[in-house]
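During the reporting period, our protein records have gained a structure token line. One record among many is quoted in full directly below:
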Amino acid sequence: MGYIASIQLPPKGFIVRRFIELSVMYLRGVEIVGDKLVITSCRDLCIELERILSTLGDRNVYLTGNDVRGIITRIATLLGVSSGGRALATDLLKSLVDVIKARVSTECITKDLIETRLTPINLFKSNFYEYGRVYLARPATRYVGLEKIPVFLQLLGMLGALLADAGRVRRDDEVIHYYVLPPEGISSDLIASSITDVVKKHKVAVRMLNRFASAPRALYVIKLSAELIKLGYTSDEVVAELVSIQEGRNRATIMSVEPLSTEGLVSLILLAGRSGRELAERLSTLAEVAIESLNSRAEVEHRNGDLITRMASDLITYARTCSLDALYSIASTLMRLTEQVRRASTDASRYLTNRIKGKGISEPANWLAELAELTSRLMNVCLAEAPVR
């Protein structure tokens, strides 16, 4: 196949490379061959880029003052964007679509967007070697730094950052920004059906995190597992990686990288037989009740949230170890919640009843009792010898 253009990618180990790879997975008309990005179809690239941008709205990536004054202003000028350094990342990407449309029958990307190499924006300089964090082992002999990169790659990197965005939290004068990326080692040169599957799971992980970013991990794992079961997945795996980046003080620094996994829950729930999907749906609903309770201003509700969170943790423990103590704890918690709702004698029980009714459930006590019965069917299910991928 002939290529319209071939561009050297930034070295592995820098997050800009991962952002670009993610963009390529979402797009058509571009591929990664070895360490190069190649453009194969201007028309496909234009159509897909325009489609994705229609779902993103007006958004920006993390920029320092120097990024705005220097790099963004320069990119805006090359694209003919009148707002200069004030341009949002989506403004720049929309202008890129216009450039491609105007040249779709030829080489589509102007030479200046490929040949003009600029210092990467600060976010893109974040790397997985900093402060000795073990993610990618820093080369023992020769460390390859991040040099200037073509404008076109910077734009694809911005698109990847927007697609990976899973929200942020503020801590004092710092902002911790969460990004979801496909697992390390997943290549963007997979066959089309495999790429579609990776993107599908990536979208689920991003959507779940954007909705439940503040949720305890055990509740998030239940929500993620239930959503994947709903979509037809039947096995456990690492769905994606959660990268947290500290953004502030004119610098972006990778703080942590952790896998987003279903931790054995998909297999455990589905081994419950025909009732597995119903069990997944009910556990997902209860997890939402817990998240809403934990986020409530009423402190008494936090007790309900904490209790359900402990139950979720016990469920993950059982999926991994087949500990009957964990299963007994799950059953005890559900019986306790059922009796609490049935008696409705405390503020906590009344809050819990209203939360469950808010999910369209008319008889919360019966619903919880049925959930306890469904969960009891896991008694004979044991995954101790089935490794979680």
Q: What stands out?
A: Confidence is low (pLDDT under 50) at residues 131-136, 383-389. The first strand starts at residue 5 and ends at 8. Residues 4 and 107 are 6 Å apart (CA to CA). Residues 265-380 form one domain.
